[in-house]
Amino acid sequence: MFDIVKAMEKDVGASTKEFRVDGGASASNLLMQIQADVFQFDIVRPKVLETTALGAAYLAGLAVGFWRDTDEIASQWQKDRVFAPEMSAERAAHVLHYWHKAVKAAQNWIEE
Question: Domain Carbohydrate kinase FGGY C-terminal: where (predicted)?
Fold first, then answer.
């Protein structure tokens, strides 16, 4: 995921300030803190983790006129917790170096 975020930053020509997460994995405080440390920016978790179903409900409500517009829907979003980086940038770079080494090793794990 780190490489994807870096590619997105390159495409838009800007660095990421925060990343909003959702889904079951975002319930893990440890995982969210690791991501904040490795990415070196804030990871923001909403109060409602299952936003796929919520998004479908919002779209249905928008279609039938329950919600006026997307701004009204956006105002429903609430922050649960922000995970800020606690690891130094130097340590994060060190960890990522070894992560990339592990990925390269795994790519050649099975002989054909």
Answer: 3-63
